[in-house]
Amino acid sequence: MTYSILIKNGTVIDGLGVHPRKADVGISGNYIKDVGDLSSASAEKTIDATGHIVAPGFIDLTNHSDTYATIFSNPSQDSMIRQGVTTILFGNCGESLAPITKKETLMDLNKWVAASAINLDWNSMSEYYDVLKDIHPGVNIASLVGHETLRRNTVVADEMAILLESAMVQGAWGLSSNFSFRDWGKTLAETIDLLKVVKSFGGLYKIHLRDEGKNFLPSVAALIDAVRTTGVRTVISHIKAIGRSSWGDFTKALRMIENAKGSGLEIYFDFFPYLRTGSMLMNLLPEWAREGNDEVILKRISDPSESAKILRDLKVITLHADRIFIASAKADKNIVGKTLLEIALKVSMPPEEVILEILKINSLNITFFGKTIAAKNLIFASRHKDSVLASDGAGYNIEFQRSGDLVHPRSYGAYPRFFSVVSPKAKLKPEEAIEKMTSHPAKILGLDDRGRLSKNHLADIVIFDENGFRDRATYKNPFRYPDGMKCVIVNGKIAFADDGDKKIMRNGVILKRNINA
């Protein structure tokens, strides 16, 4: 037998939680053809994987390369590929780039990236997929539909369901919502109607909870009620209990999810392997002050009477200004890399007032890192049978450091960090850690031909050093690729090899959901 690629002498972890084994992997075209003893086979290219793990490519269910626009500025998605991610899901946290009726509806994305950076050339989900195909991405791409995107592109609630149904027919994988800027109670009926559409297509629902702090448990309870009403398959994105006063609620939330699962509901969650969040600064505003679009929020914080109310609310909570580390700013790069306390001392203003001032100066487009997650809760999330790993980041290259902004290190190191640092602390076996990055997210999304090292599955494969796969990205210097990744194969072709010029070859495809599946 002659293969296009033959991977020899590696330790195969197939993604299904099965104990590692020594085996060879033969690839022909886009597919895995054989796994086993292939010592007598030949190939056009042979890769010696001695001392390396051979596993399925990693699948990232919470990725923001679309709304951060890095899929357009960096279609190779270097920082994703080089940590082993071969498939990413767009349209998270309530925002997607399709379907849209006009470019103006993307303006709320200015909180993450200048919407003008996106060369809009589509309206429907199908047209959007075609544009993504034409840029020849380095990774495989699927997309959800954003709840907020539907809201901005329709006039009445009934139109939202129609637009969502059309997008699902054209290959969208489901719906995402973000209730950190939206009152769940006010939009419950609308949300239930949309979830019924998703359920009718067998699609996925992903949710950014309304509150991950003091109202964390009520937010989880509200979601469970909605899932019980509709029966939709659901993933809580980047689950976490933020703030010391909420840390004890985390295990209670896990028990709530387990009880819901025990009653027949299908609820999962993903997490990232860090103790610092990477969030929009305006998330620190009280809930009532975050409601509405960017224009409404800016007007609110600029109004003297409204801003006075916001300041009163901010002073009630414990900000820990010394732990709020500014990561990016649209206009004032001088504050990047400084804590809120350092900025406040320099300008002789209370930290609460500084928040409002820098939000106004930067048109809300400002992010921060905050050390708000308990280490023990990260371990609990890692161990849980219904959890999967996700980056909650985006694909960058090293050149992005010229922007003057910082990014969360998860965009460069989430997967090696989980495998080499967090999963051993959680006492997970290597095969259990790999399962949370491969077959489990594939099953949740509905990918039946990826996420496994099995015969006749698509050849998305990673080969990495069994002992040297390590993240190098830090909060102060995130622009560092991990060590130990030997080779990444996407759709049967080498995308990255740790030799030669290490250039990323763009072999990704667009994954449209088959509505007849």
TrEMBL record:
InterPro entries recorded: Amidohydro_3 (IPR013108), D-aminoacylase_insert_dom_sf (IPR023100), Metal-dep_hydrolase_composite (IPR011059), Metal_Hydrolase (IPR032466), Metallo-dep_Hydrolases_sf (IPR050378)
Domain Amidohydrolase: 45-177, 410-495
Gene3D superfamilies, per the entry: D-aminoacylase. Domain 3, Metal-dependent hydrolases, Urease, subunit C, domain 1
Superkingdom, taxonomy of origin: Bacteria
GO molecular function: hydrolase activity, acting on carbon-nitrogen (but not peptide) bonds, in linear amides
Pfam families attached to this UniProt entry: Amidohydro_3 (PF07969)
Protein name per UniProt: Amidohydrolase 3 domain-containing protein
Organism this protein belongs to: Candidatus Giovannonibacteria bacterium RIFCSPHIGHO2_02_43_13
